[in-house]
Design goal:
Layout lengths: L1 H27 L15 H44 L1
Length: about 90
């Protein structure tokens, strides 16, 4: 049981580490200031970069969600096995 719990914990740690790394990368991405009323609109390339950054964040969120769901299922299975072992 300890091996399965350790494996589940490791998967959770990796998923959270990946999510934190992606969020950190997105936070470091340059941001265009939008408080200048007289500024020219951003070029189309900036909008494409924004869309790519948003898509990357959404993909990272989906990946993390999937990894956490798998880890949660592994924890449930371990707990069910432990419960079954106690009642047997």
């Amino acid at each position: 049981m300890a091996d399965a719990t350790t494996a589940a914990r490791d998967r959770l740690d990796r998923a959270l580490g990946t999510l934190e790394r992606k969020i950190h990368e997105l936070k470091l991405a340059p941001v265009v200031s939008d408080d200048d009323l007289f500024a020219l609109p951003p070029p189309p390339s900036a909008r494409i970069e924004d869309q790519q950054r948003i898509a990357a964040l959404e993909a990272a969120g989906r990946d993390a969600s999937d990894a956490l769901a798998r880890a949660a299922q592994a924890v449930r299975e371990v707990l069910a096995e432990a419960e079954h072992g106690e009642t047997a």
